Amino acid sequence: MDQCGHRDFELADHELTNEFGKFISKSEKNDLNLKKDSEPISLPYFMKSEETWLAYRDNYCYGETYGLGQASMRYQVFWSCMTRMTKNRLAELKNPKDW
Asked: Quick one: DSSP state of residue 98?
């Protein structure tokens, strides 16, 4: 079960990485127009927020998992949390209008 949970996370993380690349490409194009108009560009802020989000996800899932104490399902809970949060972030990136 632990390995299946880890595999599910890796699949979700791979999909998030691909979507992140698409989002960066769109942001770069948008930033070119912003830069022409002497407006602040968004990509540096987005990159910093994504780095912070990754740390938040990891720390949140460690906290949720270790809060169980010495539970036998610790790794299942951890990978389930990582997968759930990664899929939620993926949905956000796919629908930035929902931000």
From this structure: G
Nearest residue to 82 (alpha-carbon basis) of 64, 96, 94: 64
Question: So what's the pLDDT on residue 95?
Answer: 84
Using a cut of 0.85, tell me whether the model's pTM lies above it.
no
pLDDT in tens, 33-61: 888 888 899 899 999 999 999 999 999 99
Residue 6's φ and ψ, nearest 5 degrees, are -65, -45
**Torsion from C-alpha of 85, 92, 22, 15, nearest 10 degrees:** 30
Q: What is the CA radius of gyration of the chain?
A: 17
Per the CB < 8 A criterion, the answer to whether 57 and 82 are in contact is yes
Looking at residue 96, what DSSP letter applies?
G
Q: Which helix (H) or strand (E) holds 2?
A: helix 2-36
